[in-house]
Design a protein that fits this description.
By secondary structure, this protein is mostly beta strands. Helices cover 15% and strands 46% of the residues.
Length: 136
């Protein structure tokens, strides 16, 4: 019951984005920024790309780290962490720890017994990509 309440509260914190483009990942941002990509196929066969961008050192005025969700390279939604972003076919859950991200998963909507989750892969060429094993 408490877990469902936290999930609902996290969904309510999501604010719409302003459509600005995703900034390029630079090599000097390896320790302060995390990017994760999710590619999904829509019903009409078109591929959509969701990107989660979390900047660990950049905090809002009240001290919270924010997660940004980009849809095809444009800012779609913003929420403070822990965040639950509704996306096509499920949700993207983002949780942070004191030293980075604890969780960045795509959870499919299928009820409590049939829901499944998968880790969002980091972009190739980053430090996180070399430490996380993702199937190719």
């Amino acid at each position: 019951m408490f877990k469902e309440w936290r999930h609902r509260r996290a969904v309510q914190r999501v604010k719409p984005g302003d459509g600005r483009p995703l900034k390029r990942f630079r090599w000097w941002q390896m320790l302060t920024r995390a990017l994760f990509h999710l590619r999904l196929m829509s019903d009409d066969g078109r591929q959509t790309v969701y990107t989660v961008d979390v900047r660990h050192q950049k905090q809002s005025s009240n001290g919270h780290v924010k997660a940004h969700l980009y849809l095809d390279g444009r800012l779609h939604a913003v929420s403070r962490v822990p965040a639950v972003f509704p996306v096509q076919g499920g949700t993207v859950e983002v949780r942070a720890s004191n030293f980075g991200l604890k969780r960045c998963h795509y959870v499919t909507a299928g009820g409590p017994s049939s829901s499944s989750s998968r880790i969002l892969p980091p972009p190739r060429g980053t430090v996180r990509a070399s430490t996380v094993h993702t199937p190719r």
